[in-house]
Amino acid sequence: MLDPYNRPINYLRISVTDRCNFRCTYCMPAEGVPLKRHEDIMSFNEIAEIVKAGVQLGLKKIRLTGGEPLVRKDLPKLVKMIAEIEGIEDIGLTTNGVYLPLFATQLKEAGLNRVNISLDTLNPEKFKKITRFGNVEDVLRGIDAAIAARLIPVKINFVRIAGENEEDETEVREFCEMKNLQLRFIRQMNLKTGEFDAVEGGKGGICEICNRLRLTADGFIVPCLHSELRFNVRELGITEAFRRAVNLKPEKGIGTESHEFSNIGG
Asked: Residue 157 and residue 120: Cα distance in Å, rounded?
């Protein structure tokens, strides 16, 4: 699939749930967000059919996101379903890491290749303040579980929060070097204004080479994180939703109020 700017689109980020066990300050308010109805959330079979159709159009890479994807029951089952689709070359997962001690081995056996784990500080008090509910030790155990399960490379996502965690970068960098983890620095974005920066240590945020689409938990294909455009696979049909998302993918996003980080996975 080529978009209007000749970018090959081969990567789909799938939000499997809008629920999360954290309330990170840069992602959602303390009271949480209105949750989608259970019947509106895509089933595993629906997701697999969307991936199958996408492969016929050129998809090769999948990333599972949330919310927190590991709060979705039986996620290893979905990973296995996707891994068995001929043409899929890579499956990743973005997670806060808390449930990896329970599921890392199952996920690896199901076909998951690698994980990105959020870690914005190693300071326990500051971590709890940023996540509102989180315990940094739970995340560290998740990182060790991912390493043990060979979900590699294990990548660490560090969101730079102005006035909050700048002084924690050095400690997290040293931790990643010691553990042989790949560190990525992400500046806070503003979806409403379309304000964002390139990811330091990654390829995100570089519009000229953007190769991705996003699929929301309730079945909308979104061509750009910072765009209002979204196409419902249930109403339009899978292939038509893909076609419109690719053909109308903007050169660069300018802002949106149609979704939040909490329900599209960043």
From this structure: 7
Which positions ≥6 away from 205 have C-beta within 8 Å?
196, 197, 198, 199
Give per-residue pLDDT as tens, 48-62.
Answer: 999 999 999 999 999
**pLDDT tens digits for 67-126?**
999 999 999 999 999 999 999 999 999 999 999 999 999 999 999 999 999 999 999 999
Q: Which of 117, 114, 115 is nearest to 159 (CA)?
A: 117
Please state the pTM of the whole predicted model.
Answer: 0.95
Shortest CA distance to 64 belongs to which of 242, 265, 227, 261? Answer: 265
- Report the CATH number that the domain containing residue 78 is assigned in CATH: 3.20.20.70
Based on the structure, what is the number of domains in the chain? 1
Both structure tokens of 187: 């500046």
* Separation CA 221–CA 2 (nearest Å): 16
| CA–CA separation, 125 and 69 (whole Å) | 25
Report which of 74, 116, 147, 72 is spatially closest to residue 266, judged by C-alpha positions. 116
Instruction: Reply yes or no: is the peptide bond before residue 124 cis, omega within 30 of 0.
Output: no
- Cis preceding linkage at 201, omega within 30: no
Bridge partners, 190 (sequence order)? 195
Domain that holds residue 224: 11-260
What lies within 8 Å, CB to CB, of 140 at 6+ separation is none
